[in-house]
Specification:
Order of helices and strands of chain A: HHHHHHHHHHHH
CATH topology of the domain at 65-234 and 254-273 in chain A: MetI-like fold
CATH class of the domain at 65-234 and 254-273 in chain A: Mainly Alpha
Helix content of chain B: over 70%
Strand content of chain A: under 5%
Largest interface: A-B, 105 and 111 residues
Radius of gyration of chain A: 23 Å
Number of strands of chain B: 2
CATH superfamily of chain B: MetI-like
Number of helices of chain B: 15
Shape of chain B: globular
Shape of chain A: globular
Order of helices and strands of chain B: HHHEEHHHHHHHHHHHH
Number of domains of chain B: 1
Largest sheet of chain A: none
Distance between the termini of chain A: 39 Å
Helix content of chain A: over 70%
CATH superfamily of the domain at 65-234 and 254-273 in chain A: MetI-like
Strand content of chain B: under 5%
Oligomer: heterodimer
Number of helices of chain A: 12
């Protein structure tokens, strides 16, 4: 080994220090959450009598059952629809190469850098006039639209690399365009669709601005959106706020631990392609 | 669902599509007109749902943003045409211009620091921690990236508060005199928000850059090491030049995160104290939804979108060029 001993130990120390900085905040709010409600505990101090009941209280005041239902509904509405329509568009642009596909691609790519904040104000007035303001559709529909640039670009990247011969053989056997898509290309597109689905689920679950502006009723929002409202109500009750935050984090953390390989890979590929 | 189209046109479309790939495109233009029109219509129908959702919920609001920016409007009453006055106001009123300056300050914290530090950490993992320590640290450092930014904001809001962990640590190491409510301090609020950004984005940059490094030819590193290259030499002459594209991706993603920042700022400081952490996203929200100045909010929104483009395009150009 050509690497000096000292360097090895400095490197390890650096990595361990950075991991501690990443983990300590989570431990700190966990410990804080165990302090008696309405007290102001000081930083890092194990409570005399851990108040596990705080989690139950936070679960009830945050209306967690409704919230979980609402977030799940939003994810289940946004992700499958976005997946199917972006795959269809990616197929037409990348594989069928319909006339005008370069213009279409440019149109979608143009939306990639668009900050949500740039269109949130007109979206609010648009949704009021459409009559969907303050419903779950107010989150679902714009999110589908906002994911299209990335999702179409992502799926097109897959279809561009599919060999023509697959389709030619199927055409000879008499397949229609729809057969071609549904029977042959959709099954082959499963891996990129899975990554895209994971990505869009995480983004939707964590979506805050759209939920904050377009839905007044926190029980109709996403998890992250509801957390904002919860903070507004319990800003002064630090232990309860910490308990609520942990509960809202928990689903994401569990999913991350279970699927960490796929999630990291998807998020990385996502940014490389984007 | 899609109606049954008879097979003959379908077959010829394909065989023609194949020839268009191999021959100069001009050769098949006349034939293309003849047969595949029906197929083209079906192809367009495939893009239609995506296009409609994108047009209605992104392009239309974008156009409306531009339209609103030329008017004075309180959201309810009459709209009054004011030309470019809203844009002039953004540039003239110090508090509004300051939001754009703050956005660029956040770029330092959200982008430059995580990318540079990420490069160092990734190369440390790549060079030294090739085993389990490296794998664990990649997973752990990535963790803040998957939680909602709002949660990161709430967690750090508490850690940086007067009785929070940060001040406790500072007192423990004898720096009790500098303790303060970090997010409530005029000078320290913005760097504190920036620090939260580093915490969130460092792992993302590290893992992305490490992935890039692990794809490089190991022979490059081996020959550098046989020459006895130090960590720094290896870093500067092998790692950085070959990772230009990955560095570009990191810079792009993190710069957009900085310029478009909203969630973290909203839950930690809401732009305060005073105006010290106000960024365009927050200011648009306040102008539109608490002050009912829709025109001005839209002008700032349009400027934010142009700003993002103006910063991202050169980064893309610089890092995509093949050396």
């Amino acid at each position: 080994m050509q690497i000096a001993r000292g360097e090895v130990w400095t490197s390890r120390a650096l990595l361990i220090a950075l991991m501690l900085i990443t983990i300590l905040p989570f431990i700190s709010i966990f410990i804080t959450a165990l302090h008696p409600s309405n007290t102001v505990p000081s930083g890092f101090q194990w409570p005399a009598e851990p108040q596990w009941g705080n989690f139950v209280e936070a679960f009830n005041v945050a209306n967690m059952t409704t919230l979980l239902g609402s977030s799940t509904f939003i994810v289940l509405a946004v992700v499958p629809i976005s997946l199917i329509i972006s795959t269809m568009a990616g197929f037409a642009i990348g594989h069928l190469r319909i006339p005008g596909s370069r213009v279409l691609l440019f149109l979608f790519v143009f939306g990639l850098t668009l900050p949500f904040g740039g269109i949130i104000v007109p979206l609010y007035y648009l949704e009021r006039s459409m009559g969907i303001y303050n419903t779950r559709l107010a989150i679902v529909l714009p999110l589908i639209g906002l994911y299209m640039p990335f999702a179409v670009y992502w799926m097109r990247a897959h279809f561009v690399n599919m060999p023509e011969e697959i389709s030619e053989a199927a055409r000879v056997d008499g397949a229609t365009t729809w057969d071609l898509f549904w029977r042959i290309h959709l099954p082959l597109a499963r891996p990129p669709m899975a990554s895209l689905g994971i990505l869009m689920s995480v983004w939707t679950w964590n979506q805050f601005l759209i939920a904050l502006v377009l839905v007044e009723d926190p029980s109709q929002r996403t998890m992250a959106g509801a957390l904002g409202a919860f903070q507004g109500h319990y800003a002064t009750n630090v232990p309860l706020l910490c308990a609520g935050t942990i509960l809202i984090l928990l689903p994401t953390l569990i999913i991350f631990v279970l699927f960490q390989g796929q999630i990291i890979a998807a998020l990385l590929q996502g940014s490389v392609k984007g | 669902m899609m109606t049954t189209s008879d097979n003959r046109p379908a077959v010829s479309t394909r065989s023609q599509g194949a020839s268009s790939n191999r021959r100069p495109p001009r050769g098949n233009l006349p034939r293309r007109e003849l047969l595949p029109r029906r197929e083209n219509v079906i192809g367009w129908l495939f893009t239609l749902p995506a296009l409609v959702m994108y047009a209605v919920f992104v392009l239309l609001p974008l156009a409306l943003s531009i339209q609103y920016s030329f008017f004075r409007w309180d959201g309810i009453g009459e709209m009054t045409w004011v030309g470019l006055k809203n844009y002039a106001t953004v540039l003239e009123v110090p508090d509004l211009l300051a939001t754009i300056v703050n956005a660029f300050k956040l770029v330092v914290f959200f982008s430059f620091i995580p990318v540079s530090l990420g490069l160092v950490v990734a190369s440390v993992i790549h060079r030294v921690a090739t085993g389990r320590l490296g794998a664990i640290s990649r997973t752990v450092l990535f963790l803040p990236q998957v939680i909602p930014l709002v949660a990161a904001g709430i967690i750090w809001g508490w850690l940086l508060a007067l009785p929070g962990l940060i001040n406790q640590v500072l007192r423990a190491i004898g720096l009790g005199t500098i303790t303060r409510a970090w997010l409530g301090d005029f000078d320290w609020a913005l760097p504190s928000v920036g620090f939260i950004g580093i915490w969130v984005l460092l792992g993302f940059c590290t893992v992305l850059l490490w992935t890039g490094m692990s794809k490089l030819d190991p022979a490059l590193y081996e020959s550098a090491r046989i020459d006895g290259a130090s960590w720094y030499k290896e870093f500067a002459s092998v790692t950085v030049p070959l990772l230009r594209q990955e560095i570009g991706v990191c810079l792009t993603v993190t710069t957009i995160a900085a310029l478009a920042a909203f969630d973290i700022v909203y839950v930690t400081t809401a732009g305060g104290p005073g105006n010290s952490t106000a960024v365009p996203g927050i200011q648009i929200y306040i102008l539109a939804f608490t002050q009912q100045r829709i025109g001005l909010a839209s002008a700032l929104a349009v400027m934010l979108m142009l700003l993002v483009l103006a910063v991202i395009l050169p980064i893309q150009r610089l890092t995509r060029e093949v050396s």
